[in-house]
Design goal:
Strands 1-3-2 form a three-stranded antiparallel β-sheet. The model has no long low-confidence stretch (mean pLDDT 91). Helix content is 76%, strand content 5%. α1 crosses α3, α5 runs antiparallel to α6 and α6 packs antiparallel against α7. The protein has ten helices and three strands. By secondary structure, the protein is mainly alpha-helical. β2 and β3 form a beta hairpin.
Length: 212
């Protein structure tokens, strides 16, 4: 892995974890000092993250962390629904007994986080579950597309996980997805994923209506 790739991964990670907020300026000189690299590596990372939709570059303003509107987050989730329903079905087909145990443990951990009102932990486990489903599916193209889409809407996903009552609702939806995968029911897994992301769209739509 090249130095530029390493810095791109590090900067992407810090944007997704909220170290840099939407709208924050990303100054090459400052970033080069923070990450102890040359400006060329930072410039390359910013170009890559711009192509991924995480950064935007404007004349006379430079690079900033891209703001994703709620309307765009809704469209992203609609696209995810199609792709992740396919992923869930493929996971139901290909997941092993060890994968099933892994998924069930994640659900147990999500339940514990919900009971303890640990919104941050729940959000992290949510991301882990969806990542594991992508890995189990074996569908590389859909997995890559979904990973990029999730990254672009990460800020809204984090807000959603911290909304009062949302983790409990989401937990039941994720449990239904896992139960269908463990039962190797591809149609039920796809439908459960569709229902889960439809629920996300409903919440985002209410936020959007409240802003109008």
């Amino acid at each position: 892995m090249s130095n530029a790739d390493t810095i791109t991964d590090a900067l992407r990670h810090d944007i997704l974890k909220g170290r840099f907020e939407p709208g924050d300026r990303l100054l090459e000189v400052s970033l080069a000092e923070q990450y102890s690299v040359g400006r060329a590596a930072i410039r390359s990372a910013l170009v890559e993250l711009t192509s991924e939709g995480l950064v935007e570059r404007e004349a006379n303003r430079g690079a900033t962390v891209r703001r994703i509107s709620i309307r765009e987050a809704i469209q992203i989730t609609e696209a995810r629904s199609v792709l992740e329903s396919l992923i869930a079905a493929q996971a139901a087909r290909h997941a092993t007994a060890a994968d099933h145990a892994d998924l069930q443990q994640i659900i147990a951990d999500m339940e514990a986080a919900t009971n303890d009102a640990q919104g941050h932990a729940y959000s992290e486990l949510n991301a882990v579950l969806h990542r594991r489903l992508r890995e189990m599916s074996g569908h590389e193209v859909a997995s890559q597309l979904v990973a990029n889409l999730r990254d672009r809407a990460a800020h809204h996903q984090y807000r959603l996980a911290l909304m009062p009552g949302r983790p409990s609702e989401s937990l039941g939806q994720h449990r239904a997805i896992v139960q269908a995968i463990v039962a190797r029911d591809e149609d039920a897994a796809a439908q459960a994923m569709h229902d889960h992301l439809s629920s996300v769209i409903e919440v985002l739509s209410r936020w959007n209506d409240a802003q109008d």
